[in-house]
Amino acid sequence: MTLNRDAAAALVLLAVFLGFGYEATLIELFPGQETEVFSPRTMPLALAVGGTLLCFARLVQSLRHPEPGQVALGGFDWRRAGLLCVTMIGYGLLFEPLGFLLATAVFLSAGFLVLGERRIPMLTVLPLMFAAMFWLLMTRVLGLYLAPGLLGS
Amino acid sequence: MWEGIASGFSTLMAPINLLLVFAGCVAGTLIGMLPGLGPISAIALMIPITYGFDPASAMILMAGVYYGAIFGGSTSSILINAPGVAGTVATAFDGYPLAQSGKAGTALAIAAIASFIGGTIGAVLLMVAAPALAAVSLSFQSPDYLMLMILGLSAVAAFASKGRVVQALIATFIGLALSTIGTDPSAGVQRFTFGSLDLADGISFLLLAMATFALSEALMTVLRGDATAVPTEDKRPELGSLRLSGEQLKQMAPVTGRSSILGFFVGVLPGAGATIASFLAYGMERAFAPAGEKERFGHGSIRGLAAPESANNAACTGSFVPLLTLGIPGSGTTAVMLGALISYGVQPGPMLYQENPDVFWSIIISMYLGNLILLVLNLPLIPYLARLLALPRQLLVPFILFFSLIGVYLVSFNTFDIHVMTGFAVAAIFLRLFNYPMAPLILGFILGGMIEDNLQRTLTLYDGSVAFLWDRPVSFGIGILTVLVLLTPLIRTLSRKR
C-alpha cells in the first residue's frame, strides 16, 4: 500500500480539519456557556469531527481503491499560474501606495506579460487606457471613490 | 397570483429594468461563451455592480445573466465544440456536427428557440409550483428547515459530484467550516479570527464565490495552458442562415415540449440541475426517435440538439423553486443568487412570497422575458458576440482576474480581501485538481449560518435531544429522504458491479 496523490491530498485535508478542531476547542466562552445545550463551540466541533471522519474515509478509500487516472501534476503550467498569483498579491500590496490607476495598469501589464504578450502597445497603452476609463466610470459615473494615487495627483 | 404576475410585469416594464435584462443577457452570453467560465462566475462578477440597485432590479439583471450564460455556453459548444458550461456539453453532440456541415446559423437558431420554449414552459410551471410550495412550507419549523438544508447539501453532494460523494461531502464541510469564521452571531464571541479585525465580520460570500469560481477557473485555464493557446478564430465555422424551415420547426415541437417538462422537474431536485437534465433529455429523445432518425444522433440531429437545449433551460428555471419557496438553493448557481439576495437584505423562503411579492414575481417574470430577449435580441447579435471567442486569452485572463479582484474590493474597500482571495483561489485549485467539487463548498458556506441558527433553535427547543428526528413527521420524512439520497450513489455503484 503506497501513498498516492489522492491519499496525500486527503491527509492534508485531514490535518486541516484536525487543526480546525483544535482551534475550536480554544474558542472563548462566557461563564456558564460550557453547560449550555448550544455554545459557539458546538457547530465548529461538530464540523471538525464530521470533516475528520470524512477525510479519514477518503484516505482509506484512496489507499484501498486508488483511482486509475491519478492527477498528473507535472503537465501543468505552474510557473505562469504562480507568477499570476504573485501579481495578484502585488496588486493588493501596491493598490494603496500607488493608487488605483497605476496599480491597475501595472497589474494588467504584468498579467499580459506573464501570459506571453510581447507587443509594447498592448503592454503599455491598453492597461493605462483601460485603468483610466474604468476609474472615470467608477468615480464620475457611479460616484464611487477610488484613490487615483500617483497618476491622479 | 394574477395580481402578483401583473405586479411583476409592471416592475419589469420599467425602462431601466428592461435595459437590465438586455444587458444581463448580453453580458451573460459573453461570459458564458468563454470556456471555463459558467453562470456561477458570470453571476458572481455581476454582484458588485448590483449593490446599489433595488433587489428586484438586481435580480432581474441576474436572471438575464443566468440565461445569457447558459446560451453563451451553447454558442461555444456549437461553434467550437468547447462547452462554456457543463449543462451544454450535450448540446455539442449534435450542435457541433451541424455547424461543421455549414449550418452553424441553423444550429444556433434551434438552440435559441429550444431554449426559449424550455424557459417558457419552465416559467409557467414555476408560476404554478412556487406559490403552492411556498404555502405548504409556511408550516415548517426550525427542525424541518434544518433537515431540509441537510437534504439540500446531501443531494448536491450525491448528485452533482459525478460519483465522488466523499470528496463532495468534504467540500461541503469545508464550506460549512468557513462559514463559522468571524463573530458568533448569538454570543458575540470571536471564532477563528486569530486576533485579526479584518476577519471579525467573517469571510464575505462574494469573496469566496469569486475566489472559488471566477479566479480559480481563470487560473485553471492558465495551468492547463489554454490561456496561452492560439486564438480559436480559425476554428469558427461560417454562420450561414439563422432561419429555420417549417419542417425543422415541426420536428422540434414535440421534442422541446417533452424535454422542457422533464428538465423542469429534474431542475427542482437539489443537485440535479441543467447537466443531468440535458443528458436525460438527450437520452430520452434518442430512445423515442424513429429508427432512421436515431442514427442521426451525434451527427447533427435537430432533435438531438433541441432536447438538451430545452431541458437545460427548463432545469435552470426549476432550480429556482426550492430557492424561492424554501430559501434553500439546489445548485451552485442558485446558491450564489441566494447569497446575493441576502446581501440585498432579502431573505428567500416562504415569507418572500408574502413580504416581497415584487421581488418574487419580478424574478419569475424576468426569467421569461430573459428568454424572449435571448431569442429576439441576442440571437441576431451572435455573429458579433461570437468574435469574443477569437479574443486572445493572454489578454482576457488578466481582465477576468482584475474584474474579480476589483469586484470584491469595491464592496469592502479593503486590500486585505485581495490577499485572502488569492489564498482561497490557490486552495480552490488544489481542491479542483483532486476532484473536490466547488459547488457543494459554496452551498455549505451559504447555508452554514442558517444551519447553525436552526440547529441552535432546535436543540434549545428539544433540550439538547435529537428526538426531533423522529418526533416531527416532516423532519422524519426529510431525514429518510436524506439517507436515501446519500445511499443512491452507493446503490448505483453496487448494481453496476453486479
Question: Could you please describe the fold and organization of this structure?
Answer:
The complex is a heterodimer of chains A (153) and B (498). Chain A has 153 residues and is an all-alpha fold. Chain A has helices at residues 5-25, 42-64, 78-98, 100-114, 120-141, 149-152. In chain A, 69% of the residues lie in helices and 0% in strands. The termini of chain A are far apart. Chain A has 6 helices and no strands. Chain B is mainly α and 498 residues long. Helix content of chain B is 75%, strand content 1%. Chain B contains 21 helices and 2 strands. In chain B, strand 1 and strand 2 (190-191) form a beta hairpin. In chain B, helix 6 packs parallel to helix 21 and helix 14 (332-343) packs across helix 19 (438-461). The radius of gyration of chain B is 22 Å and the shape is globular. Chain B starts with a helix and ends with a helix. At the A-B interface, helix 1, helix 2, helix 3, helix 4 and helix 5 of A face helix 7, strand 2, helix 8, helix 17 and helix 18 of B.
Which key terms come to mind for this protein?
heterodimer, A: 153 residues, mainly alpha, 6 helices, 69% helix, 0% strand, B: 498 residues, two-stranded antiparallel ribbon, 21 helices, 2 strands, globular
* Annotation field: number of helices of chain B: 21
Q: How much β-strand is present in the residues of chain B?
A: under 5%
Give a count of the beta strands of chain B, DSSP E runs of length 2 or more: 2
| Separation of the first and last Cα atoms of chain B | 51 Å
What kind of sheet is the major sheet of chain A? none
Query: What gyration radius of chain B follows from the Cα positions, in whole Å?
Result: 22 Å
Number of helices of chain A: 6
Estimate the helix proportion of chain B, in percent.
over 70%
List unreliable stretches of 5+ residues of chain A.
none
> What would you call the structural class of chain A?
mainly alpha
Give, in order, the helices and strands of chain A.
Answer: HHHHHH
> What is the assembly state of the chains in this entry?
heterodimer
Order of helices and strands of chain B: HHHHHHHEEHHHHHHHHHHHHHH
Number of strands of chain A: 0
Overall radius of gyration of chain A? 24 Å
- Class based on secondary structure composition and strand pairing of chain B: mainly alpha
Within the largest sheet of chain B, what's the order of strands? 1-2
Span between N and C termini of chain A?
64 Å
